[in-house]
Every structure is written in structure tokens, then in C-alpha cells.
Amino acid sequence: MKHRVHVFVLSSLIIAGAAFAGVGSWIPMKAALAQILLEKAWQETRQGKTSIPAKPWP
Amino acid sequence: MLPALAMALDGRWDRTRLRQVIFMTDGAVSNEQEFFQTITDRVGDAHLFTVGIGSAPNKHFMRGAARQGRETFIFIGAPNQVGKRMAQLWDKLAKPVVTHLTAKPLGEGSLEIWPNPIPDLFSGEPVVFAFRYGKDLEGVKVSGIGADGSWVHGLNIETATPGQGIVKLWAREKIAGIKSSLFQRKTPDRVRDGVLSEALQFCLVTRHTSLVAVKKKPSRPDNIPLATKKMPTNWPQGWEPSKVFNTPDWDGNAFQNNLLKRARQHYKSAGPTLLASASPVADSAGPMGARNQSVHLPQTATRAELYLLIGFVLLCLGLIIWWTDPWRGEKP
Fold it and tell me: Using CA atoms, how far apart are residues B6 and A57, in angstroms rounded to an integer?
């Protein structure tokens, strides 16, 4: 009986912690990934790998 | 059309008759240079009227040809204009009063007359020509052929009324004459040089010259420095000052007036220097309602840090329980 409580408390603690960490890191992770993708796309454009010509900032 | 025009204009001068040629077309004239050349070579003393019908005729050519032929271009663009415009033409055709006008100097002195040749005198229309003369000129004898034979009129320089702008009129006519000499086998460069020298001497606007205005007195004297001041700006759309400053009885006009008053005072006391920021946020000693008051703006950032902290604490707690295992020894 106590073992079940033990497993339940432990798993709910870990699940809740992972959920909070995931929600909290979701936006910053996306922001970090966006920077990497932007840099990659820009380098590809500069090397002429894309068919669409680079437009100047409006 | 060129052979017909060449046949009508044979280049003769006839003192006893007045030759009037009407060139009427509703078609396009494409080889205009050739036409101009023919007209210039063969016009003689003929009077060439040009009538263009519809939208097709080359108006540049028609107007130029009529000028070469001492006459005017009549343009009929729509059927309801026919009566009026043709009546004008008949009037001109029917009523020449004096033709073959020439002007000769009386006494010693040179005379340069423009337009050259002088256009004919028609009933109801004045003949205007301008001339430049040497200082020994006594008068001008104008002669022509009228209905009753020869017509002579003397003009005395002594009795002439001085007038402004006559020199411009003369120069303008001379430039027009130089331009039309383009068709008398003169090269465009020589025409340009001629036009340029006259236009520059008499300050006229032509296709080679233009007027440039230079303001001599500057609007701002050099010894007065530039002033910089901040202007009150508009609120972003959808913002309400009463909510931003948390004061329900917000008076926008008073706020603006106060801001302007403070700006003026500051400007007077500090001189023309950069004003301190007059924006409501940064101005700690700000205008009424904004004094020492923070602005409540909506907070839009995520609570990522808080969530991360909670998640970290929970995970740590779980791991500690996992390792320490307080229910050890109670395995089923």
C-alpha cells in the first residue's frame, strides 16, 4: 500500500516538474531555435543557394 | 501628300496677287523633315494655312508648317467644332488688308526686324513686329501692298513711347526665327548656339535655357543657431491617458497646454538647447497628473522563468525522494 503511494507521489512530482519546465522553456526554446534558423537562411541567401532574390529591408 | 504640296508651292514671288494655300488632312504626316524642307524651299510669298481634322494629324508638323507659311494652324478635333473653326479660316482667307509688308530704315542706322518676314495684316488682327536699331536711325518706313495698291507708312523714332519688355519680345521673335531656320539647312548645333546666345543675353526661357532663382537674403541668419525641441506626440491608437495615468478626470488639453508652457519656459531660460524629455514616462518632475507616477502598461511577457523555477524545484524534489527512498524496506 505504501509502495503505491510512493510511486504515485514520485511520478506525479516528476511529471508536474517536467510539465512546468516544458511550458517555461517552450517560448525561449523557440526563440533560440528561430535565431539559428534565421542565421542559416541568411547564409544560404548570401551564398545564392535560394532561387528567390534577397530583397532589401522595406 | 508631298507632290501635292510641291505643286501648290512653286516658290514664286508675285507682287500683284496673294497666293493662299490650304493644306488640309486627317492623316498622319510621318516624314515631317522632308515636308518642312519642301515648304521652306518653295513657300515663296505664299500663305500656307494648315487644317488638321481628327486626332491623327501630326500637330507639331501642322503648326510648324503654318508658321513657315506665315499663317496659323487650325485644328478640328470634333464635329461640333467644324463651323466655328472654318469660319475663322474663311475670315482670314477673305480679309487680307496689307500684304508683302516690309520695313526700311530712314536715315543712317541699322535695323534688325523680327519676325522676318513680317506677317501680313488681316482685318481685325494687329501686326506686331519688333526691331533693334542703331543710334542714328530717324524712323522706319513700313510699306506693303494693300487693296488699293501700294501702302506706305512712316514711323518716327522720336515720337515713339518707351516701353518695357519690348526687348524680350524682339528676342523671343528672333529665337523663333532662328529655330525655324533649322529647316533652311542649318545644323542643329548652329541653331542651338544661336538660340543660346540670344536667350542668355535677354534672359529668356527656351529649350536650352531655364531660369534659376537665387535668394540673396537667407531666411535664417548665419549667427542664429538652430533650435531643437521636442514636440508632444500623439497617443498610440487605442490608448487612453486616463487609464495610463490612472486618473479618471484626465484633461488632455490641459496636459498639452502645460507641456507647451513648460517647453516655452524651459526654452526661454535655457536658451536654444536640447530640451529635457517632455514625454510623460521619463519626466519625473512632469506635468500635472504625471508627477512621480509610474505608468501602468499591460505586461505581455510569458512567465517562463517562474515556470522553469517551479519545474526545477519539483524535479529536484522528485529526484531527492527517489534517491533517499523513505519507504525503503517496505517492498511487497
Answer: 64
Which of B 247-306 lie inside 8 A of A, CB atoms?
Answer: 302-306
Out of A5-14, A30-39, B66-75, B255-264, give the one with best mean pLDDT: A30-39
Q: What is the pLDDT of residue A31?
A: 92
Best to test chain B binding among A20, A29, A30 (most B CBs inside 10 Å) = A20
pTM above 0.90, yes or no: no
pLDDT < 70 regions, chain B: 15, 182-186, 252, 267-298, 327-332
Question: The C-alpha cell of A42 is what?
Answer: 541568411
Q: Does A9 touch chain B (CB under 8 A)?
A: yes
| pLDDT-based confidence at residue A19 (cuts at 50, 70, 90) | very high
- Nearest residue in chain A measured CA to CA from B328: A3
Distance CA A7, CA B327 (A): 10
**ipTM score assigned to the predicted complex:** 0.74
Contact B308 A24 (CB under 8 A): yes
Q: A25 or B301: which carries more pLDDT confidence?
A: A25
B295, B245 contact by CB (below 8 A): yes
B105 forms bridges with which residues in the sheet? B140
- Is B320 near chain A, with CB under 8 Å? no
Contact A24 B307 (CB under 8 A): yes
User: Taking the domains of chain B in order of start, what are their residue ranges?
Assistant: 2-94, 96-160, 164-214, 227-268
Alpha-carbon span B233 to B135, nearest angstrom: 70
Residues of A within 8 A of B329 (CB-CB) are none
Q: How high is the pLDDT of residue B31?
A: 82
Query: So what CATH class is B2-94?
Result: alpha beta
